[in-house]
Design goal:
3 domains; alpha/beta; 18 helices; about 500 residues; 6-stranded mixed sheet
Amino acid sequence: MKRRLAALVYGNAKYSGITPLKNPVNDANDLAAKLKSYGFDVILSSDATALQMDKKLREFNVLLQKNDVGLFFFAGHGVQIEGVNYLIATDTDTTSEVDAKHSSLSLDKVIDTMSKSDVSTKIIVLDACRNNPWERAWHRGTEMRGLASVYAPKGTIIGFATSPGELAGDGTGRNGTYTAALLQHIDTVDCSIETMFKRVRNTVAAVTNGKQTSWEHTSLSGEFYFNLGLGKLISTYKDTSLADSLLVLDEGRTSHQIIAALKTHNWYLQNPGLALLNDASVDKMSIHNLFVIGRNIYQAACGSANAAQNFIANFISATSGFEEDKRKAVLDGMLFEIFFDSKAELRSKIKGRYFDEVFALQRHTSLKKSFAFIAEALSAANADFYSLPGKGHELAVTIATKKVDDEYRVEGVFIDGKNVLRRIDGDDDWDIDTGIKYRRLMRGHFEQLLSEQLVLPARQLKLTYTPTTPDDFDEVGFPFNWTVQKQKP
């Protein structure tokens, strides 16, 4: 399910001898961050010389050989010379057109590089039709403004900020007009790239009062989506199971009666409702409904429903009479509920109350397919963890402490040589005069907190304290409003 995506992103603004452009570096940085969030392996270059641009293109060519989708983006000055488009480097010799074309990056070279690679989908985006400051020196007329029309080889889409002969706006805010519109629409879930570019065109036209019209050349044979919903990545279960808020309940079905009971948050309904789940009833249920039942069992357990808690604690015996694919569907649903909400979107914080208990089931080889499923689902959703849950890998964590009076205070939490302990974003409860405030946690509670924030079962965390602490110490001082949860890009 994991997509293999590569991108080369340029933003050139500080040109020699002319006023710097305002937005291209921001455009490149913001788009690179967005692409990374969708799983792209990104090469980012800002204010690059001609030599640097060529070097990055060669690096990109190597990267393309390991991927299925390649994306090239350039923001900055671009010109056409004798019908050929050139992307201007910060040190391009602009004395004449001849000098310029031999000291900049030819768009044809970019297209050739991508067309001869193994990627099946090739995307080129150019926010590069700004006013040419060398127009007078080159003695050219207005008919040579903007970029020239180009041929899009098979499997390629090329997006331009303007139609031929038009100029692109540098934007009034952080981003250029075209890139701002691109960033606005790129997040639309399950929106094909062709539809996205149409929406970009509408926005650009509206913002510029019709003065700028973006356009595309395309020869794509398939569809590409930036923000691909899980329903398109996971074919095992229906969309209404993954985004179970869309499920319409039919009280005539036993499976739906169970789901309805578990959703009530009423123990007197949840417990007898779950009792309807047995070998005979499961035999008549689809894996799609069993997946949703699994989700709601976990939800009910987190709400303290005894029957749901017991079901998790005794999962092996409780499901021993289920067919293999139906047992898997229930466990898949429980695992999915930990990480994804009712819209099939990643939770900002996992639902972790029974995280350890469910992941303890990973020790049973008969259940390994469920943990492979959740690892693939998280990978497909571009979830970013220190170690991907479901893979079963141990994570080495070193906790730096300092003894103050009778308390061992946590000063740092190190993974791969980096201190990952950080103040929670946006927290204003901070007094610089009095310093960090600590709360006392029992050692077991602290280690469980690490497990939840690092999103790995406690048994997969190899914890080391430094300096070495006594084996029998039972309390830890942990700073208020700090976390080891991985920071989102």
